[in-house]
Write the structure tokens for this entry.
Amino acid sequence: MSIFPYVYFMVKSFEVASNDTQIALYAGMVTSAFTLAEFSTSMMWGRLSDRVGRKPILLFGLLGTGISITIFGFAQNLQVALLARALGGLLNGNIGVLQSTVGEVVHNKEQRARAFSIMPCIWCLGTFIGSGLGGSLAEPVKNYPGLFSPGSIFETYPFLLPNLVSAGFVLFGVTVGFLFLEETHEKKKCRRDIGLEIGQWLSTGVFRSRSSHDEYSKLADANLDETVGLMQDNSVASTPRLSNSSCDDRLEKLPVQPLDPEAMSLAKPNAAISAINKNVLLDVVAYGILAGHTIVCEQLLPVLMSMEPATTRPKSAFQFLGGFGFSSKTIGLILSAQGIYQMIVQLVLYPKVQGRFGTLNTFRFAAFTYPLLYLLIPYMALLPPALRTPGLFLVFVWKVTHQTLALPSNLLLLNNAAPSTEVVGLVHGMGASAASLSRAIGPTVAGLVQVAGLNAGYLGLPWWTTAAVAVVGAVECCWIEDTEAGEQKRSNSIAPSLKPPA
């Protein structure tokens, strides 16, 4: 997100375009290169995380991001910039894997909605901070001549500084993850983790008394007991605490019964694709459609706000032009306020609504009312001047609230649809791939439709096209089911039929 404020100026510095239209086209190629590459590898990273665990993939994805943004900062031509962005997308499959991790960390169904609502909130916070850093640190020799002298490396590479700062944040994240992030995959969490051991050694201190280490061991034992308890049937939930601190020994002491045939079929290495059921595919398609029309809205709204107000009367109810005539500074303030509102609503409103109406009903409500929002947005530009700002305020509240309701619900439905732990990462990887493809194609197509609409005098054409896409998503979600069967099967695939023999 830190590249958005300066990518236009970066492409302009490459001197590959002769006019503003070409610069905008190449800038779109640079931003889309990441999502197109991410689309091609998200499923692979998700499937790999099912085999080797979540933590290694998350850390490798962060490393890939750090490498790509560093190369991007040194780019002096369009080819290197495209290569760096594509490399970042190829090496980073963290979105789907992170969603799998959240689903595995939070076992309580009531708390899972809040957990999934935190991710968009953090994303929004990162967007807010990243955009600020990118805009303020680009071209430092030009903007801060007292701190960065001409002839320095930052004059040769004017967009290096924001990328180096971002790479520093990434390195910090990798370090914290290596030392303190715990594996969440049920079948991988018992293996030795050298990073956690080093982190525990650093946190307790070399010369700390043995009692401190024992305290840590007891805490680890308690966490493992909770995991074992979740794997046991309710009828044996009151089993006395196992005193042995060895993870393997504890698992060996669990009551062993023959595997459920369905769980056995899901555990086969070649059964992953066959475990992707109808509901998973419906959730993936819904996620792709949602990502597509929401990113188009994010692209079109700033353009609408920057366009000059209409000077002529509308020719018809559909053929008209206009805008709000806001400055870039005003638009930036509005978008920042949107981010703050979204974080608050994400943490406060969504868990209450989801708890009251359920995940599927919450998602369907947002899906069925999205088209109406897109149909009405262009008409806000035709309101009397005194009502335009309140109308725009209503639009942003509506848009942000719907994003808050729709995205976490879609992720929860996708998580619940996964039939086994063997395919949770793959399922979320499929969702991430669908979203990446939509986010790469959607803005490009919307831009072409917008140009055609403006040339013909139809300001609302791209909005009404987006509404049609949202209608498809609303109809498609009628076939989606919210099932907890996948969650039950995931438990059975680890420790099935734990009831003691009669």
Q: What stands out?
A: The CA atoms of residues 28 and 444 lie 8 Å apart. The chain has a mean pLDDT of 78.
